[in-house]
Recover the amino acids of this structure.
């Protein structure tokens, strides 16, 4: 219920902002509880700030507003996803709903995952620079 309540609050904040989905992110200081000079008419509306992400910790009753650069392979906001939705609309959604790997392939996350696994295998390989005996004694 908490997640759905936050989702509603975020959506209302985005919809009420004059720039909608292009609303700028809030930048906070290193402590995370003091606003910097970035809070101005572009970031704050009648409903308050428009956070880009909220992370919650129930064990500490704490919420953090996190700001970061757009990940080029983000499954939500990457150019590949936005372009696919703009070009194909509901057909894009249907394909994403019916093929659990579609979004990963479209964004390049599948390739990134495979490269990471290959790197892990290489790092953990027995054929390291220890004389090439495969670790046997």
């Amino acid at each position: 219920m908490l997640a759905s309540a936050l989702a509603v609050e975020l959506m209302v904040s985005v919809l009420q902002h004059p720039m909608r989905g292009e609303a700028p992110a809030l930048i906070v200081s290193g402590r995370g509880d003091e606003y910097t000079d970035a809070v101005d008419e572009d970031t704050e509306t009648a409903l308050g700030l428009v956070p880009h992400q909220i992370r919650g910790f129930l064990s500490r009753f704490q919420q953090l507003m996190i700001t970061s650069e757009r990940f080029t392979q983000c499954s939500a906001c990457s150019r590949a996803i936005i372009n696919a939705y703009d070009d194909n609309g509901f057909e894009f959604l249907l394909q994403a709903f019916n093929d659990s790997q579609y979004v990963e392939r479209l964004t390049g996350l599948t390739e990134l995952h495979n490269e990471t696994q290959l790197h892990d295998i290489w790092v953990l390989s027995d054929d390291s620079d220890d004389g090439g005996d495969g670790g046997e004694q």
Notes: Helices lie at 2-16, 79-88, 90-98, 102-107, 109-123. Residues 2-16 form the longest helix (15 residues).
